Amino acid sequence: MRPSLLIYNPAAGQRWRRPAPEAVVDELARNGWRAELHLTRGQDHATELVRAHLAPRHQAVWSAGGDGTLGQCAAALIASQVPLGIIPTGTVNVIARECGLPSSWRRAFAAVADAAHTRPFRTWRAGERAVLLGIGVGFDARAMGRVSAGAKDALGMLAIGTRGVREWARYDFPPLRVTGQDEHGRPIDLDATQVLATVPRHFAGQHVLVADANPADAFIDLVLFRGTSRARLAAFWVGVELPGTAQLRVPGVQTLRARRFSVAATDGRAEPTHVNGDVVDSTPLSVEPWGTVQILAPDRV
Fold it and tell me: DSSP of 235-294, one letter per residue?
């Protein structure tokens, strides 16, 4: 049997959908993988576990959790030849969707259990964290960060959406300054009241944020909301929920590709920031190119 590490987040996703860690170990074994199981105990613990336990014998690292857990595992595999496998048990699992994996964790694993195909994902460094999915500064970070753990555990995306309505009603449009370098090396210096940065095309599940975003290229795609119109902010997020990219046609929305960028609040506030869906940081924030990880994916992708 092929040896591997299994990093399991017991707090990911909704309780009633979360498999027991032993069930995941058994499923891997049925498909020829011997899994060395390690459970996370908090934020960034997955990174520590992979760094502490990864050995030359391991042929894969499996991440059982959501996009946050996956990003933490990726931080320990930068420039490594050991592939990262997804066992999607989180609330949204955007990277799994980007890679063409089914939503069921068993079917997702079956799709890559025997695959040798991998997809390269460029990572970006925010402090010591690897940005594999994206970053949000402002509205969506407030909504995700202020939803209670109990509500999220019970209701998943519905809890986040409900909290989002409350945050929209009281959003104060923080004055954000975005600086850095665009794809051509030219300086960026722009104002915004909400900042999103995405590595893949997908965002918040099956929705497409930037249609031509490429996780393997040397750029990260920025979507800036500029202005203080509550109606336009609502139109933006309604657009995200619809097929296509209607959100990018809302007046005041600007997109660009960046080599690196920083976000700071011009009034000095520490504005909440999410990294890979986990609200773990705040402004000022700097994002730099890091390295590449290889993610197991179906051959057809």
Answer: HHHHHHHSSS-GGGGSTTEEEEEEEEEEEEETT----EEEETTEEEEESSEEEEEEEEEE
